[in-house]
Design brief:
With 499 residues, the protein is mostly helical. It is 63% helix and 5% strand. It contains 26 helices and 7 strands. The strands form 2 sheets. The protein has a 5-stranded mixed sheet with strand order 3-4-5-6-7, with helices on one face. It has a two-stranded antiparallel sheet with strand order 1-2. α26 (460-472) links the parallel β4 and β5. α9 packs antiparallel against α10. PPR repeats lie at residues 112-146, 182-216, 235-265, 266-300. This is DYW domain-containing protein.
Length: 499
């Protein structure tokens, strides 16, 4: 009764409300002000203020029921679509019983698509999702056109009901209505098929997706995991996607497990594993799989050789790298692209052959891009070649003048030579050009193994410290820096201290 009396006084006031007035334990604000509604037509005035009460003060189901009762007592029609819309939305948001929402909904006059969607969503999130289909059919009979939110909610309910036949029917409707190409709808279809055990249909949806976000990947992986690995290994395309996913996430052993269980493997399978092993620091293993690939008479692609050359550059295999580069052209007839030349520059740079790397860049048959010049600049910083570093920086100023990392690298070269005036000049030019250094950050995921993602190259001190931590605490630690993965175990790293 105390709440009811406060509601009454708030709604019937003709003056702006005092912001200190409290409704139960909540502070009321000045949003409930007098309306321009005339005394002869008080209903819109009451509806507006009751909607405001629902929006701002219905923080629990008990408060919502009191506000609802109050609105009825003060003449808000039971069939008012605006009041009903907000009541139903709040009921669903509070995870209240859907029977309450349905009683409100059944009395509404011409509810809009938002209200229909909210009802479908409510059932989809409830313990009994089956009525969502009934609501959808009534929506169609009422000639209310669905929108972009309708089908994701409906497909979620179908997935929860494990009703794949209804899901197929709704899939057909989305095609007819033009909603199938929407990412949210595709994710919902993928999830529905995967949960219902129809892995082939899930794979078809996945393959048809132009854009695949984290939700799509999670749905296909979880779906196949729920339905068992034996069904998974029957589909080479899905296996390839899963293998590539694991490799890119740093779970290289899981990627190898998928590869080992595949009944059929193609160039994509080998390439995904070779690139994955190379990026994760297992270059020698990557080259062994390349040899297996050749023994099976599979012709490597351009991307395969990117992985092979990357493995050589990140493992210090200089001669092997040049040999593979030669074989790529002579034996397989693959013309090198900028990515292949970039690997060769990186190979020379990491080996400390900075002058040879610069000469190699000058003799390239194509114009070097910013990545290649930045690779040289980074090598100059590590190995102390000031003159070549300035040359690389001059080219980068023409290609990407606002890249903060280039300023930092050049500044570090000057600092190593104790040229402090030049260090200040570089830093001043950063300020004048409006360039800000990208702040470093790390994201840590505690588990087995411990995973760390960094946006900068891991430094030598951190690298040494993490090796010791992995040995002392007997933990596997996986770090993803800006260019590769480091797998630390028992005091050693997969990069073999060469990165």
């Amino acid at each position: 009764m105390r709440l009811y009396s406060k509601l009454s006084s708030l709604v019937h006031t003709s003056q702006p409300l005092n912001p200190k007035i409290k409704l139960c334990s909540f502070t009321f604000s000045t949003f409930l002000t007098s309306s321009a509604t005339t005394p002869q037509n008080p209903v819109p005035h009451i509806v507006t203020k009751c909607i405001a009460l629902v929006q701002f003060w219905a923080s629990s189901i008990s408060k919502l029921r009191q506000i609802h009762a109050f609105s009825i007592r003060h003449g808000v029609p039971l069939n008012n679509p605006d009041m009903g819309k907000h009541l139903i939305f709040t009921i669903v948001s509070l995870s209240a019983p859907m029977s309450y929402a349905y009683h409100v909904f059944a009395l509404l006059h011409d509810p809009n698509v938002f209200t229909w969607n909210t009802m479908i969503r409510g059932y989809a999130e409830s313990d009994d999702p089956s009525p969502a289909l009934h609501i959808y059919r009534k929506m169609s009979v009422s000639c209310v056109d669905p929108d972009t939110h309708t089908y994701p909610f409906l497909l979620k309910a179908i997935a929860k009901s494990l009703n794949v036949r209804e899901g197929e029917a709704i899939h057909s409707v989305t095609v007819r209505n033009g909603f199938e190409s929407l990412l949210f709808v595709q994710n919902s279809l993928l999830h529905m098929y995967a949960v219902c055990g129809d892995t082939e249909s899930a794979h078809k949806v996945f393959e048809s997706m132009v854009e695949r976000d984290l939700v799509a990947w999670n749905s296909v992986i979880n779906g196949f995991a729920l339905n068992g690995r034996p069904r998974l290994t029957e589909n080479m395309h899905v296996n390839n996607s899963l293998l590539d996913f694991y490799a890119k996430c740093g779970s290289i052993r899981e990627a190898q497990q998928v590869f080992g269980e595949m009944r059929e493997r193609n160039v994509v399978s080998f390439t995904s594993l070779i690139v994955g092993l190379a990026v994760n620091g297992f270059g020698e293993e990557a080259l062994e799989f390349f040899k297996d690939m050749e023994e099976q008479r599979l012709k490597p692609s351009e991307i395969t050789f990117v992985g092979v050359l990357y493995a050589c550059s990140h493992c210090g295999m200089l001669n092997e790298g040049f040999n593979y580069f030669r074989r790529m052209k002579e034996e397989y007839g693959i013309m090198p692209r900028i990515e292949h030349y970039g690997c060769m520059v990186d190979l020379l740079s990491r080996a400390g052959l900075v002058k040879q790397a610069y000469e190699y860049i000058q003799n390239m048959p194509m114009r070097p891009n910013s990545v290649i010049w930045r690779t040289l600049l980074g090598a100059c910083t590590i190995h102390g070649h000031l003159a070549l570093g300035e040359i690389a920086r001059s080219h980068l100023l023409k290609l990407e003048p606002k890249h903060s990392g280039d300023y930092v690298l050049l500044s570090n070269i000057y600092a190593a030579e104790h040229r402090w005036a030049d260090v200040q000049t570089v830093r001043r030019s950063m300020l004048e050009d409006g360039v800000r250094k990208t702040p470093g950050y790390s994201m840590v995921e505690l588990g087995t193994p411990i995973r760390v993602m960094k946006n900068l190259r891991v430094c030598a001190d951190c690298h040494m410290a993490i090796k010791l931590i992995s040995k002392v605490y007997d933990r596997e630690i996986v770090i993803r820096d800006r260019s590769r993965f480091h797998h630390f175990r028992a005091g050693s790293c997969s990069c073999k201290d060469y990165w």
